[in-house]
Amino acid sequence: MIAWFTKNTVAANLLAIAIIAAGLYPVMKDSLPVEFFPSSDPDVISVTVPYRGSTPVEVEEAVVVRVEEEVQDLEGIRKITSSANEGSGTVRIEVDDGYDPRTILEDVKNRVGAINTFPVETENPRISLAQRTFAAITITLSGDIPEKSLRELGELVREEVLAIEGVTQVELTGIRPYEIGIEVRQEILEEYNLTFADISNAIQRSSLDLAAGSIKTDVSEILLRTKGQAYTGEDFENIVIKSDSQGSVLRIKDVAVVNDAFSEEPSYTTYDGKPAVFVAVSSVGKQNILTIAGKVKDYIEERKASLPSGVSIDYWRDQSRVVDARLSTLLSSAVSGGLLVFTILTLFLRPSLAIWVCFGIPISFLGAIAVMPWLDVTVNIISLFGFILVLGIVVDDAIVTGESIFTRLQQGMPPQEAAIQGTKDVAAPVTFGVLTTMVAFLPLFLMSAGRGPIWQQIPLIIIPVLAFSLVESKLILPAHLSHVKVGQDRTKMNAFLRAQRWIADGLQLIVKKYYQPFLRVCLKNRYITVSIFIFAALLMFGMFTGGKYLRFVFFPRVETEYPSISITMPLGTASEITEGHVLRFQEAAAELQEKYTDPDSGKQLIKAITTVVGATRAGRG
Predict the structure, then answer these.
(1) Separation of alpha carbons 133 and 457, rounded Å
(2) Helices (H), 29-127
(3) pLDDT at 504 over 80
(4) SS3 of the chain: helix, strand, coil, percent, to 5
């Protein structure tokens, strides 16, 4: 094959063009999803049981322990983690490798659904398979308008954003939920000879939609259904508690006060000091976070013109900008690395040889890009890191092959014969060198669960790149080098070629005068040489395991662009006390915003300040 492709340069060029076209196709078609971290299938099942008004101890004893006991013997569970909070309990079930999470999910639903010893006050369990989402961008709506109007506007914006093509995950946050409260005084109940149970039963009996069968006719079948579900305060007010034979009707509004408003929990959100509501947009699966954020920004610009007076719309926590910056940094690093590789090769090899060796880099990379959709690999910071990591490795086989061919040319062989023979001389060691490098990265591919899908991206990039580089160095490179000539007269060279030849010849002189004699000494005293390397390896191992000179950090801490302050007060703390502390932080942040402002342009380093009080539980700001 080596001889055939070397003699048929058209075939070699067609092979190179085919690889390049295959790699450019997914790029031109925009079929490579862009995400921050690689997504993976969910393997955690969450069981949440609301238990209103209960303490964490009560939740643990009455809910969490019973769920754990019911599911702990299921096959395929790696670990169970539980948390008992005020008003609810959550059990997280991690699925073991080799088991289908959705099958385990059905088993968990059946087991939890069969529990009949939960307290009466508990609500229906919420059982779901965890879905990995990544925040893309958050829309802020702020203004001095009533809370109800702000929420209605937020719900409208949420529906409009959800209608944008490609956007599937939108959540309204930072606002209290709706709540209908029915207040009844004991003396009124005694006056009408009623109990709380009577009112509760009346609501359960009347506030529902009920199927009532069907009527069959000669033409069709008509389904009957009563629509009685109450949604507003007025609907609840008109619910009948009881009636008599004389036609008298007693409704809820006659004995109780119905409040149709928000929940009473002390919670609010501000954006630059004004009441606000957030519309959080996330990317799911392999959705392109850059595309989603771009569409949302376009929507914000269009929506500004149709907002009510006194309301402003903006975006907050634009994660796509962070992703874009990280990707740009990685891409620029890849380009810089490629240029450095080309520069070094040009200085120490013949320029024509360096050009054809570097030509293998884009071919190898585009070949890997061509198979990325088949391998389910996306463009993310880990896969791009794989490209950068392999950048300096991918040219090794081409350099060895090129030097071997160049040596044959210097010996006086014809270019085509030198290309064939030089490639064959190093075919075996180069092939095994590439294969051993591939094998070195296989352990990362075999990692599973947890962060396994993240690290698998590295070998899924490096191995295809090395495979295509092997193809390029054995079938394409020899055909190109079969036309290279050596022995050019120095008097006919320009200044650059003379300088390049001087550097290359200097390297050859160093190799012959210093390296070869040193290598002979090492080979003659092989036991001493091996002992020195063993000692160096032990020394480095000791430095690593000792932890004093080389520390181990799984993920380095990276400074965020969104500094935050969180304060947690004891349970039961009055909201006014929490608000007072949060207000102090807000004032301090406002002073910093004013301090770091360019006096000439008026541009502020701190774009905006948000305040959230009571978002998670009472006493938290």
Answers:
(1) 18
(2) 56-59, 65-71, 101-113
(3) no
(4) 50, 20, 30
